[in-house]
TrEMBL record:
Top-level taxon of origin: Bacteria
GO MF, one example: protein-N-terminal-alanine acetyltransferase activity
Record domain N-acetyltransferase: where: 12-121
Keyword ATP-binding in record: no
Protein name: GNAT family N-acetyltransferase
InterPro entries reported in the protein's UniProt record: Acyl_CoA_acyltransferase, GNAT_dom, N-acetyltransferase
Top-level taxonomy: Bacteria, Bacillati, Bacillota, Bacilli, Bacillales
One Pfam family matching this protein: Acetyltransf_3
Amino acid sequence: MKLPLLQVETERLIIRPFQKEDYESWLDGFNKRLPSQYKYDDGYHDMSSSTKEWFTEWIRGFDEAARRDEMYVLGIFQKEDGANIGKLELIKILRMDYQWAMMGYSIHNQHWKNGYGAERAGFSFECTREAFSMGNGKWADFLIYYKNNETNK
C-alpha cells in the first residue's frame, strides 16, 4: 500500500515525511545544536552512533507506523536551504465517528526565536487534517487543544 504524501508548505517551511536522502540534513540539525537553553532542553546530542543505516531503519519504522495508521512522523525543513530544523509527530489515539489524535513537535534550539514554532503549529493542523481525513478525501472535523509550555523559548 502506498501512503499518501503528507506534505504542507508554508512561506518558509516544508513539513513532510523523512526520506533517506535527508540523513545529512537531519544529522547536521543535531550536530549544530547549542548547549541547553533552559531546563527542558537537552542541548547538544552525541550523534556518533546515528549512522545512515540506523537513520534509514529509523524512518522505515515511521513508514510502517503510518501504514498501520498508528503514528505519522514528519520532518520540518527550511524551504530556503533544506535544513532540517525539527520534527512533527501525529499519534492516533482513537478512530470512531470522530478522529482523536495527539500532536507533538520539537525544533532544534539553534532555530528558536525565529517564529518557526508558531508557523509550524498552524500548518501542522493541515497535516493532521490530511492524515485523519478518514481516507475519503474529505476533511475530518476535530477539536484541537494547543498548550505550549510557558517556559519554552
